[in-house]
Inverse folding.
């Protein structure tokens, strides 16, 4: 499938302190950080975290151990920054101040975003700790599968960039219809990644007798986790659709 690219504002230099400090603004001290701004920043980090996976698998295929370790370190850094925002939002999201959407829906959406970063870190950790090699029988279909899943994550991140416009329009009107259409495309892209993932699983099954049985088990787990990045990205869009539908 076509992968949609988007340039985001650089946030790699941001530290967790930026998200945990409430600053000197009296309203900021009273209500905490803007949850919708933090939500977008968190999604950018989750997306950037998942973006490392294609290069990680390519480095494994090329036998570049130092590059594999560097990419895992970058994934860990991005996941830690995402965790810092996740913690800040849960600690400071207003309970009594009126929000334009249900607080529970907002936290559910945040959790789905966080799972993208978490499962990416799980994938990198398993690949590195077990020093796993990609079986020849799945090398051809694996990278397209990874790229399709990351494409779904990118689509989800693009949708989250519409949050400011949704807020301005009260989650209704033409902007809401535009976002709903984007979510429809997200659902289609996730289904396409599922189909590709099934093909990779069939390839693994066909070559099981050529692979160490323990490695086979872990590769099925890895394929499931790779697919989870797209599943969680789709869930982000579906949670946002729920917010629109209940307005």
């Amino acid at each position: 499938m076509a992968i949609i690219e988007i340039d985001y504002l650089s946030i790699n230099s941001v530290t967790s302190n930026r998200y945990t400090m409430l600053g000197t603004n009296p309203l900021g001290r009273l209500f905490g950080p803007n949850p919708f701004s933090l939500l977008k920043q968190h999604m950018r980090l989750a997306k950037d975290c998942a973006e490392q996976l294609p290069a990680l698998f390519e480095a494994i295929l090329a036998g570049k151990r130092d590059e594999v370790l560097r990419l895992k370190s970058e994934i860990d850094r991005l996941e830690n920054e995402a965790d810092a925002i996740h913690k800040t939002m849960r600690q400071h999201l207003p309970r009594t101040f009126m929000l334009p959407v249900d607080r529970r829906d907002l936290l559910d959406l945040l959790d789905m975003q966080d799972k993208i970063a978490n499962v990416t870190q799980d994938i990198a950790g398993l690949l590195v700790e077990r020093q796993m090699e990609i079986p020849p029988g799945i090398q051809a279909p694996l990278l397209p599968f990874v790229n399709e899943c990351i494409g779904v994550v990118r689509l989800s991140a693009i949708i989250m960039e519409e949050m400011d416009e949704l807020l301005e329009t009260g989650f209704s009107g033409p902007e809401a219809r535009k976002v709903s259409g984007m979510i429809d495309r997200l659902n289609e892209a996730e289904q396409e990644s599922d189909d590709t993932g099934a093909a990779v699983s069939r390839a693994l099954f066909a070559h099981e007798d050529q692979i160490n049985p323990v490695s086979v088990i872990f590769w099925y787990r890895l394929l499931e986790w790779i697919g989870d990045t797209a599943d969680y990205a789709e869930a982000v869009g579906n949670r946002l659709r729920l917010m629109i539908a209940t307005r």
User: Anything to note?
Assistant: The chain has one domain: 33-245. The chain has ten helices and no strands.
